[in-house]
Amino acid sequence: MANKSLYFNGKDSEAIIKHKDFYNVFPFSIQCWIKTTQNNNNHSSIVNKYISGSRNGWSLNIKNGKISFWIYNNNNGCEFIGNTLISDNEWHNVIITVSNTVKVYIDGVLDIEVSSNINSYNTNSIDIVLGLYQGSHERYNGFLDDFSFWNIELDNSIIAKYSKGIRIDKNNNFLTGYWNMDKLVDNQIIDCIKKNNGTIKNLELISYGCPIEYYKFLLQQNNQLYTIKSEFYEPSKSQYKPITGVEVNNITDENLNKYGFDDIGDILKTIDKGNLNMLFTNDLEDGKQFGVNLKNGIKKIDGIRLLK
Q: Which domains does the chain have, with CATH numbers?
């Protein structure tokens, strides 16, 4: 599966992620990738948890081609515009950390730091909205990918890691929401962490996305016919045992997170000559393996190596 993204047309595109109490935390961080040419004097909202004029909540926007952000808690807070022009039609990683200070990182580099003027935070039941500034109809025009929400102030090592396109670790205990935008199910973007999926309106899923790392394996064959098949494994204390009863043609993210992974869709395919690249739909995390079944009298595979 290739990395994908959402395209917001700046007219009527939006997505709504319902409020959950675990989003009312302090400190917190948000992260996303954007690609846009939008450059006007409006606060065009990329993602927010804020209703216009409420003075309670936060909003990540683009204004004059730069990141703008504000956060308020019962009228106390801050708002500002960053320094780096990002309306260049290139992918940029944006990370906001909120504590006693608010920091904006663009592609892993600190862009601006200001005092937050708050020491707690609560948005009550305001939903998270992508692409629309609630109450004023100022909309984002551009691409959005890999949006995540964290209940911690991300440190420099994590910021450096994810700004370089390393896949987000879904097992991180501080990660409370992750929408990778790689697929739509029932008109929803999928939350890989809490299953708090977002409902979309007039949004298009684009077949290319931000420069996120995907793993693939190269099987070097010995110029004879053989068949490969993805297998799902569950760890035990001594060995990995094949899972039975998992339908390989109906794999869910839950299966992938618990048992293993799928390949690019060629679950069972005969290879004649050359190389086969298997691109996994989810991270190949610790404790997960794949099996290669050899048929047609094949004696060996010359080598298997991980490609970055």
A: 5-206 (2.60.120.200), 216-307 (no CATH)
